[in-house]
Amino acid sequence: MVFDQLTQPSTFSFNTMIKGYGTNDLGHKGIDLYIQMRYQGLDADTFTYPFLLKACNGLKQGKGVHSLVVKSGRFSSEIHSLTSLMTFYCSFGDVESARLLFDRMPEKNVVTWTGIITGYVKQKRYKEGIELFYQMKNSGFEINELTLVSVLSACANLGALELGEWVHEYIDRNKIVLNPKLGASLIDMYAKCGRIDKASQAFQSVPYKGVYVWNAMIGGLAMHGYGIEALDRFREMQGNGIKPDGITFIAVLSACSHSGFVEKGKEIFHSMKRDYGIEPNIKHYGCLVDLLCRAGLLNEAYEVIITMPMKPNAVLWGPLLNACSATANVELAEAAMQHLMVLEPFNDGNYVLMSNIYAAKKRWDDVARVRQIVKDRQIVRNPGHSLIEVDNVVHEFMVGDGRHPCSEEIYDMLEKVAVTLKDKSKYSGSSDHHLDHL
């Protein structure tokens, strides 16, 4: 209303409104306003295009803005506009376009480097994100808290403990304050890399423990099977005046699931809405189903799935099928598989589980039928893979993979290990038939 009362709105005024629309999820109005601005003969400035990008709701619109930047000439090499474009592409998962922009940028700063690293990490391309971080570090650029949060996230998902410890040392050496997000990232990294002791130490060193920090610690304890400690932290968190959120309950329910606290888990699940005003979402239902499946309460888990207020997805049916394989419960397995064949038609693991369940009951015709479905649908089995960090470099190995430059030496060493184990087993008198798989 105020903007409409301006007799001669300037580019600054238009920019402010475009930014306001983009921030409030009214991007289409921001784009209309940009068209109005150009129609009135006003030129865009260095702020217009970044604000216009925030108003875009898809790649096609963003590429349109990109073309405007290129046509303008003046801003095609301006770091603020290019960084905004790069961040936009990353936010929509198009890291290839973002990387092209990044590589061609005549000038880079800490925001640019952090943006491209974060883009790769969010797309789960952790190795490339870490490689870019090394390039950034070697180029002498300043590293800020946001950079470190992204790098720690990559370390957590790759199990790159050595680099994660270097980041921790860098934080201490440069006296960087552990804000809630950075503290939570550090705790999460240590927990996922198997060092729950160091995660606990990091937790103690965070000066202000917001909900992110508590969630990371509770989730880490849950992951390591420390259910009692996780529940203690949950109570302590509330005693310190921190209100739990939806993520907190995922961590707490996961702790109950991993530790077999069935009744406590059900009690916490039902308390979410009653005591905390948090409506359980599909992830919370997934935790409850996982809890029941691990406890062998398959019929109760099935009842939860079919009566929940939202449509169940593969994350709920999958644990039920997996649990059925332990008990060879054919009836429930078939019910789960019926849904999974629609939700995940090419997930090879589901068909393997179903085939094994039939085989356990000696239903060979059904085993053959499942195998025929796999063949007809041309479903390819995804090979297993593992990661290992050596001298700050993360190496990935696939089953039967010979692409690694040291493959010959690795297989030679593996053969020597197998021979040594066989020799040892002869002296100890133990059976060595399981070593043949090596």
- How many strand units? 2
Note the main sheet: 2 strands, antiparallel
- β-sheet strand percentage: under 5%
Instruction: Summarize the amount of helix as a percent range.
Output: 55-70%
Distance between the termini: 74 Å
CATH architecture title of the domain at 1-107:
Alpha Horseshoe
Structural classification: mainly alpha
Integer average pLDDT: 86
The CATH topology of the domain at 1-107 corresponds to Serine Threonine Protein Phosphatase 5, Tetratricopeptide repeat
Our count of helices gives 23
Please trace the helix and strand order, writing H or E for each element.
Answer: HHHHHHHHHHHHHHHHHHHHHHEEH
Unreliable stretches (pLDDT < 50, length at least 5) are: 430-438
Instruction: Kindly provide the name of the CATH class of the domain at 1-107.
Output: Mainly Alpha
Gyration radius over CA: 27 Å
Report strand order across the widest sheet: 1-2
Question: What coarse outline follows from CA principal-axis ratios?
Answer: globular
Description:
This is Pentatricopeptide repeat-containing protein. One of its GO terms (biological process) is RNA modification. InterPro entries: E_motif (IPR046848), PPR_At4g14850-like_plant (IPR046960), PPR_rpt (IPR002885), TPR-like_helical_dom_sf (IPR011990). Keywords: Repeat. The chain is mainly α. Helices cover 68% and strands 3% of the residues. The chain has 23 helices and two strands. It has helices at residues 11-23, 27-39, 48-54, 59-72, 79-91, 95-104, 110-122, 126-138, 145-158, 161-173, 180-192, 196-205, 211-223, 227-239, 246-259, 262-276, 282-294, 298-307, 314-327, 330-343, 348-360, 364-376, 407-428; strands at 385-390, 393-398. The protein has a two-stranded antiparallel ribbon with strand order 1-2. Helix 3 (48-54) runs parallel beside helix 5 (79-91), helix 19 (314-327) runs parallel beside helix 21 (348-360) and helix 21 runs antiparallel to helix 22 (364-376). It is globular.
